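Single Protein Entry

Contents — chain, fold
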Amino acid sequence: MFRLSSLRLAKVLVLAEVAGGKVAPATLSAITAAAQVGPVTALVAGKDAQVVADALAKTKGVEEVLTTAGDHYDHGLPEEYAPLVASAVTTNGYTHVFAGTSAFGKNIIPRAAAKLDALAISEVTAIKDENTFVRQLYAGNAIATVKSADKVKFCTVRGTTFERAAPEGGSGKISEFPAVAASGKAKFVEDKISASDKPDLTTAATVVTGGRGIKNKENFKILEDLASSLHAAVGATRAIVDAGYAPNECRWARQGKTVAPNFYLACGVSGAIQHVAGMKDSKVIAVVNTDEDAPFFQIADYGIVEDLFKVVPALTEKINASK
């Protein structure tokens, strides 16, 4: 990753999100984006800080890792994290603070920015220079280039537009940073996460998605069968989730999750702008739809104008037969 010569004085702090004792994928994308601006320092806090710090120090692009001990940081509460971020910026003179566009990043970045009288810039998809960033508006209908005059720039980074930093190749140093006293304004109660042995939508290499063309809840099973054959994650548009045809964890796009798999297959999906905004960074896009004028065909790499109830079972049978 190259770095513009005009950005030499920039120092970037990346907030490391921890999931299951590991660095979250969104953080790795934020590191890649941050490396375009200047030297990268990662901040990790909580009980897993030291273990995660060892992994972060080996991550390509990370020059330093700050670790902070404190039970009040364990669950990423923004009321506790924001004062810590503000303290790190003030103490070490960081010019930028980046985090992934996840619940973790979106909770902390605006609050930390407010503490230092700065404006948070969300959903960054490209970096022009240390002051200028590109982001999408109105579900991708508009792309804005914004320039910030704030002394410290706070940004959340859209992970699907930046490659994840390699977990090897770095040799960053690890330093301790003092904790800020707990505010006690919020208390973690519990996480309610649906358990599944299926691939996760946001990290799966292959995604099969169904839209209104699936018609009813019973028909959704043919997509699940195809996804199982492909070892793929199953996605769904908002319309069929709201109709009860698919579970809520399958929902994504503008109203849910953002995906960028190596292969994305849309079945019975028209390709409205809200949907496209959430998956357009996929490497290869294939579409099955009876309407040859469906907007999705304009961005698809491959398309089949046919009834999905003929195509999907045939694909599943063909794949299973080849195993």
Summary: The helical segments are 25-35, 49-57, 78-92, 103-115, 220-230, 238-242, 273-277, 308-322. The domain at 206-321 is CATH 3.40.50.1220 (Rossmann fold). Residues 242 and 248 are 8 Å apart (CA to CA). The first strand starts at residue 12 and ends at 15.
